[in-house]
Amino acid sequence: MKFNIKKKYKKSRLGLLTLKHGKVNTPAFMTVGTYGSARGLSESDLDSCNAEIMLCNAYHLMNKISKLCSSKSISLHDYISWSKPILTDSGGYQVFSLSEHTKVSRSGVTFKSPINGDTIYLTPEKSIETQQMLGSDIMMIFDECPSYPLSKDETQESMELSLYWAELSKKTHFTDQALFGIVQGGMYEDLREQSLRELIKIGFDGYALGGLSVGEPKPIRERIVAGLASKLPDDKPRYLMGVGKPIDIIHAVSEGVDMFDCVIPTRNGRNGQLFTSSGIMNIRNSKYENDLKPIDEACECYTCKNYSRSFLKHLDKCNDSLAGRLMSIHNVYFYQDFMKTIRTAIDNGTLDQMIEKVDLVYSDSQ
Ligand SMILES: [Zn+2]
Predict the structure, then answer these.
(1) Which of 4, 115, 362, 366 is deepest in the core (most CB within 10 A)?
(2) What is the pTM assigned to this prediction?
């Protein structure tokens, strides 16, 4: 993996990530393909939205699919028919947010599968081995994602366990895939800084801020991001996990973050919540019944070029799955276009003006 910073504007960075399966312009937004697909969107749909990288959840692809890929000597790329870069997450977040009866020990986690109730024992080594079998471009270390709120003592204990697991993850890594460390430490700046110092000593290809967007108030998250983002190593990609809304993304970019992911574009798209240049539109509103305009006249996505608000509203009302697909295409395109505009603004030195505009349009849509 190579990471070149082409230009800086204040703390923000315009960069290019070169991975095994292609190049990714940063700041980048990764489309989430939980089960290996972005919920109803094919590779050509994502291509038409200019998506350059997909995030897949190792947790959901563990066992059956990773073993199949390994035994047939095919990569996850071949299996899901996606030729561009893939980042796999380690499963840590899913284990701690989706599973019941989670039992944590120093060596790993035992939990009940939310899919079939099976008891699963997952370790940092097993997570990395799975991600290596899948052959993703970027792997994430396995960490404990503490809940919010949590006392400082408990957060420290969790952060130290994650650091131990970070070492185990690193020791298991033997491929040419990139491996990113994840800074933990909850809402406590000193713990976050300790986590970061120790991760740098272990040495990773990129650094992520994890354990945010777990229910904490927005000002606390903003304080952590603002305090920490620019302290992550300057020459490595910086990734803010699970964030988020356009307004949160652009502010984090201004603090020096390079990579983002979130399910919002597809999840909201399926529910008729559409991002536009003038704010959020809810297609289920009765005022769009006879509206023959596209979702956004300024948008050049496949949906806006071919379909009206009225027809999308009609499809959504009839529960036709085409509605979810078309509206997701629009949102995924919007996010990629938004990131492209951010990159241009960094290049031109006009990011502050763009932030002012985004604040104006999206501050009421939180
Ligand atoms: Zn559109």
Answers:
(1) 362
(2) 0.97
- Protein residues placing their CB within 5 Å of the ion ligand 1: 299, 301, 303-304, 330
Gap from CA of 331 to ligand 1 centroid (Å): 7
Give the mean pLDDT per block of 10 residues along the chain (366 residues): 98 98 98 89 96 90 82 91 95 79 90 80 93 95 92 97 98 97 97 98 98 92 96 98 95 98 96 96 98 98 98 98 97 98 98 97 74
Cβ atoms 257, 28 nearer than 8 A: no
Domain boundaries along the sequence of the chain:
2-262, 271-329
What spacing in Å lies between the alpha carbon of 294 and ligand 1's midpoint? 7
- Topology of the domain covering 2-262: TIM Barrel (3.20.20)
Just list the catalytic residues: 89, 261
Q: 334 CA to middle of ligand 1, Å?
A: 7
- Where b means 16+ CB within 10 Å and e means fewer, 11-30 reads ebbbbebebbbeebbbbbbb
